[in-house]
Amino acid sequence: MSAFAEKPTLEKKPVKFSNLLLGAGLNMFEVTTLGQPLEVVKTTMAANRGDSFASALARVWGRGGVFGFYQGLIPWAWIEASTKGAVLLFVASEAEYYARTFGAGDFVAGISGGVTGGVAQAYATMGFCTCMKTVEITKSKLAAQGVKPPGTFATFMDIYHKEGIKGINKGVNAVAIRQMTNWGSRFGLSRLAEQGIRKVTGKDDGGKLSAWEKILASGLGGGLSAWNQPIEVIRVEMQSKTEDPNRPKKMTVGNTAKYIYSQNGLKGLYRGVVPRIGLSVWQTICMVALGDIAKTYVEKVTGDQVTAKH
């Protein structure tokens, strides 16, 4: 018998169209349920940094009752969700696999997958969607000044004609930083929490976690990943339609951070962290826990179908 136990061989799973559909479907479910209301409250607090959580809820309600919490859902959040979910599940799974082939453990492989998937999301689909969602939510300030805000597509075309592709992708670098830190933290911390749960429950030898254990691990990973809220506040400010002569004319991540700090101090950079924690927990449960469970189920069903045919 060898003195060294052989490492289990990693199996490279084929890219399946069903996994892309699964990622899109999970993200559509996430955003249409709790995702968009929490996104709207979080963005409202980040844009109106003097608001408390209660006053932000009242502000959103005043924009249209229950429908105010779903502002920007159609079409921008749906376009974003249906594309970024597929990108994340595909790219993160591939990156996590290749990290493991280089000997990375669960935690490092999880971070690698999340970071790569997050960056791919930002530059492939999310730049213009997050920009337009933020514009939808923050342009209500025009209404408060007695100016009738233009419609969704009129706003999009106006920005495109004035500023081109750069205009509708404003803040995309901040989005990329947010997404790579978001999903790097979420996947990595979720995998770390899974390891902790395995130790507590005596499943150290790679034992399978139950659905509830997966959900608990993802909830912990999601909640802890809200540490990067300053990046989110910076992103919202860069994409906001607010008018302020003190704002930098050409906004970058650095000078926007300085502007927010000068206006609202350190607390300003953490506005909206409470709904953000809720959003992070819900997104991580949907995309990590439910993603793992659903992928296993799909693979089992399709595998059974192939076996039945033969």
From TrEMBL:
Superkingdom of this protein's organism: Eukaryota
One Gene Ontology term from the biological process aspect of the record: mitochondrial citrate transmembrane transport
Membrane topology listed for this record: Multi-pass membrane protein
Principal subcellular localization: membrane
Pfam families linked: Mito_carr (PF00153)
GO CC annotations on file: membrane; mitochondrial nucleoid
SUPFAM superfamilies in the cross-refs: Mitochondrial carrier
InterPro entries, alphabetized: MCP_dom_sf, MCP_transmembrane, Mito_Cit/Oxoglu_Carrier
Keywords: Membrane, Mitochondrion, Mitochondrion inner membrane, Transmembrane, Transmembrane helix, Transport
Solcar repeat windows: 15-97, 112-196, 213-297
GO molecular-function terms, A-Z: citrate:2-oxoglutarate antiporter activity; DNA binding
Subcellular location: Membrane
Family to which this protein belongs: Belongs to the mitochondrial carrier (TC 2.A.29) family.
Protein name, UniProt field: Probable mitochondrial tricarboxylate/dicarboxylate carrier proteins
UniProt organism field: Phialocephala subalpina
